[in-house]
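Hi team,

As requested, here is the filled-out complex form for the flavin-adenine dinucleotide run. I kept the field names the same as last time so the parser does not choke. Let me know if anything looks off before we queue the next batch.

— J.
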Amino acid sequence: MEVLTSDKIFGGSFLLAPIGSQPQFTPEDLSDEAKAIGEAARDFMLGEVIPADEAIDKLDIELTKELLLKAGELGLLSIEIPEAYEGMDLDKKTTMVLLEEVGKQASFSVTYGAHTGIGTLPIVYFGTPEQKAKYLPLLGSGQKLAAYALTEAGSGSDAMGAKTTAVLDGDQWVLNGSKMWITNAGFADVFVVFAKVDGRKFSAFIVEKGDPGFTTGLEEHKLGIKGSSTRALSLDNCRIPKDRLLGEVGRGHRIAFGILTIGRFKLGAGCTGTAKVVLEYTIKYTGERHQFGKPLNAFGLIQAKLADMTTRVFVAEAMNFRTISYIDDRMQAVSWDQPDAAKRKLEIMDEFAMEASIAKVWGSEALFATADDAVQCFGGYGFSSEYPPEKIYRDNRINRIFEGTNEINRLIIAGTLFKKASSGALVLPKDTAAVPEAAGFTGPLAASRLAVELAKRLCCYTAATALDVCGQKLIENQEASARVADMLTEIYAMECGVVRASLMTANGHRWAALARDCADAYVNESWYKVQTNARLLLAEVLEGQPLDAALADLGALSGFVPQASSKLRGRIAQQVIEKGAYPIIQY
Ligand SMILES: Cc1cc2nc3c(=O)[nH]c(=O)nc-3n(C[C@H](O)[C@H](O)[C@H](O)COP(=O)(O)OP(=O)(O)OC[C@H]3O[C@@H](n4cnc5c(N)ncnc54)[C@H](O)[C@@H]3O)c2cc1C
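And here is what came back:
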């Protein structure tokens, strides 16, 4: 099969492309430079951050600042800052490697992400040359730390409902209002604050600690990530110089949402790093604890959990690197020297907004399931704060809430498909003919490859039917829309896993057999999720005979033959138990 080049790929196109026809960058393809950065980040985390876990979680702000300064000295804070401003300007694939490592301490990861990501990137993309020169070298070295202030007490998901105002008074902006839940607020020096100019035009400003009228509240008492600082901000006739406007008046939404799209990919990578740690200590514990005269990991139901945890990591890595590589390839072609570089780079990111939301929703829910499995494997000890699963269970809960809640991201995934279908960018075929044998699904992974094709057809047929009935109003039926989003998400996850396993098989990778088992085990369960969502979606928009007829049409698309799950999962568990960790490592 001819494989397209990455410049031919556009957002959502995976749904229509035959499996394997789109290029897929995998962790196995990482450059030596990316691996070296990953190693440096791992050494930093193992040497400095993980040993300080307890102190960090007691919210030792001075320690966190020191750690960030050390990270800055190692170049780990300037990864996305252009070289002209003393940054490393790493490609996005390398950034993902780094974020995976940093994800191994949840509070530090949130602090780090808020500083290097949502705090710093608005200035990278929208700052004037003067603003960049003033802030970026200091933010890149960790001498100054950043935060991003969008949310307010009355406006979270509905961010554009913000009430904070900005009025130009001579050569100063005067800001009034308050912000809520601001990560790093307890120590940040530079805050990107969103406010409405004249109460209407949503805009972004750079506010500095110490600006008159600017104060932060007390630390919030949170369920988890207790080592990250979260406070409210108050802007009471806060006066800042006129040149602290970021971007243009009335274009703040572009900054707020463009930056969040980038953050969603990153959150997926951070979740993967955490999941690896959880898997590792769960393997150890279930090997050491005995019940009924056997180690826990000798029992089939514990092995099934270890296998699921492994499979999720395998699929997550496949998903994270696939899309980011399309973005990276295009972004590399846009030099920061070009006058419209920021605009073009953000357009590339926007193109893959659906995949960014998929990575966020899937990654956060996969990690949540993994943390839950860990608690269960530890039994009563999993419920005790003396053992590690209790903390990760609490710490990772936030991932489903920030960077856009998973409900909002599901609506973005579905809404993007509906718009692309209506504009003709993605024409959804209502093709219920069985997948032709000529499609050549033979050999290893044949059943899983076929499942992906069937799932794509199920999704296209049912989403097209629902759009025929409801038109763009379909988005107003949120349950139906979430079913479309969940189908797209599972299809993408299955395909990324299966294609990665195929590539590893073709390249004779030493862990190819494990990779195939992971892909097959994932598809074994995931295919049924797509099928169920497809049927329930039809039931949302049809009834009576038309529903019966449409459900009957799906019959030709039910030809997936499952495998014995206990065999697949048993083999996966055996391998990770022997290795004592997730085995497919790159550096
Ligand atoms: C620890 C922490 C750190 C944070 N850090 C930052 C930060 O650094 N900067 C910042 O600006 N913000 C930050 N936030 C805020 C975070 O982004 C918001 O909490 C989040 O966007 C949700 O907003 P909300 O809390 O107001 O919930 P709401 O918007 O009130 O949502 C409540 C529930 O309703 C659902 N809901 C809302 N609207 C819809 C809809 N249209 N359709 C269906 N369901 C809907 C949501 O999905 C959610 O389940 C942080 C929050 C926390 C807890």
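Two things worth flagging: The longest helix spans residues 252-288. DSSP finds 18 helices and ten strands in the chain.

Thanks,
J.
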